[in-house]
Amino acid sequence: MPIVAMVLVVMLLGVLLWLLNRNEVEESRLSLIKDILWVEQNIHFHLTTGEEKLGQLATEMSRAELPSETFEVQARAMIANSAEFDRVLLRDAEGGQAAAIPPADGEPISQAAREAFILAKSIGRAAWSAPFVMAGRGQVFEVHVPLFRHQSFVGMLVGVVSVDSLLTHHVPWWVAERYKIEIIDGNGTTLGAKTLVELAEPGPSHQVRLEPPGQGLALVATVYTGETNLARNLLAAAIFGLALLSLSSLWLVRRHVHRRLAAELALRNEHAFRKAMEDSLTVGMRARDLSGRITYVNRAFCRMVGWSEDELVGQSPPMPYWSPDALEATMEMHDRVMAGDAPAQGFEIQFRRFCGEKFWALIYEAPLIDAHGRHSGWMASVLDITERKLAEEMARQQQEKLQRTGRLITMGEMASTLAHELNQPLSAIASYNAGCLNRLGAAGFDPEELRPALTKLGVQAQRAGQIIRRVHDFVRKSEPQLEPCPLNKVIEDTVGFIEFDAQRRGVTLQVKLAAGDIQVSADRILLEQVVLNLARNGLEAMGHTPSRQRKLSITVSAAEGQAIVAVADHGQGVAPEIAENLFQAFFTTKDEGMGMGLNICRSIVEYHQGRLWFEPNTGGGAVFRFSLPMRAT
Length: 633
Ligand code: ADP
Hints:
With 633 residues, this protein is of the alpha+beta class. 50% of the residues lie in helices and 23% in strands. The protein has 4 domains: 2-223, Beta-Lactamase (2-Layer Sandwich); 282-384, Beta-Lactamase, CATH 3.30.450.20; 410-479; 480-633, 2-Layer Sandwich (Heat Shock Protein 90), CATH 3.30.565. Strand 9 and strand 10 (218-224) form a beta hairpin. The mean pLDDT is 85.
């Protein structure tokens, strides 16, 4: 709109200036015509008056006694009183000069004058000549009035009009100031001119016929175009310049406004985007100034604590959501944060909700920097970790429970293992004992013969004692005790436990230990328990395997800092439909199974930062493997 208005104003100004100019041109043309007509009238009046006066003199002379005296007197008076003629001549009937006022030498009559002479004589009235050059007077023209006495032509009265003096006397100064006035002949040649000004450039001109003398003479006025035009042009230029300036500044303002609007829009979009982002956050955000006063809270924080934004913003410590039981500790933490000493990894603190419920928050503090780069406060992101903490606690309790249950179950299993295990050394002890007794009763008894039998009996008794101690240790220990264990040795010892069972089931045991000494951090009893469980599962899986293929191999290896124990059997393998449930508690496919073995094994292995998994064995059956991180030696 402003630009359209401005353009209209400029256009209207242009039209106005053009109209003014046209008016002025028209006016000056009119006044030019008026003025030139006035000048023409003036000259006409004087020339006709002069002609009339000559006519009267001619009449008087025709009647006078002494015509030449009358001429002298009258002509002198005419020259002296009026400025019509520069000179008055009396010519005789042949055209020769008879008298001249003011006196002058008789000059030969010019061609133009002669023609006028002849014309006047023939028509018997005054006649005007064409212009011609007269010595000492420049361009002149003459009026010839015939003299008659008693009806016969006796001479001619001639009035000489100099073009220059005509212009000098009959063009007033005020005309000469505005125009250049010229008298031109029929060919357009200038005969005389009058002006008071220098014409820089000729303006419009107007021409009127000069009658008398006729003969193609004309009066030309040319307008002088001077300073007035310059001032007007300057004014117009100034107006247009100013208009252009206004237009360009308007354009600049418009551009500025456009940019500003674009920036505002971008800012609004940015603000809306940030607001949406803030509102969608589940993390609470809270900003405090350097004095600890709350300056900002987001929706998630309000939801978390239960107070509204209006209630929280502006609050100073102690905050309403601080737990009343831990006010001092909270205040201490607050002071640490204000001093810029907040833990970089965040800190946990207990807050309370509006309803009084307590909750755990994990808080990360970061300095708040304003637009000038000044530190203006602290921004905190607040996470409600109550559920996580509860879940962690529950998991811990569950783990503990599981371990207890596991230990009880294992104890039962151990008891049956022990029964088998102890059976073997005890029957060995019993048979060595019977042998010794037989020897004692025999004739020629040598006490030395008893030594090897008694030594073997002692070894068997020691082994039985070890088995019992293990069970005792396991039951007594409440917490797993991690200690350096040589893995090869642990496997070897465990194999000792199942040897008897394997023999009973007709299974060949194949043990491949690792080449070097592999040390792991483990609770030895639990580790043995894992191997024992996996081996027993393998043995049980081969119930229907043809006896030639009943082979259980236990392999120890090491790779990339991990020790790996593999227990491979040639049993029925793990069907895909049960593969997912294998490690769940109480999942079993056996009639007398508990379904806890693999579950406990996985818990134990994971407790030792290891992994337990299984794969099908090449040539049928399954391989159960577990890894344990190796100790740096
Ligand atoms: P349980 O032996 O008391 O059944 P486990 O947790 O030790 O409990 O084993 C769960 C189930 O996993 C077993 O019932 C069996 O179906 C399957 N399973 C375990 N080891 C093997 C194996 N070596 N080969 C095939 N299936 C196995």
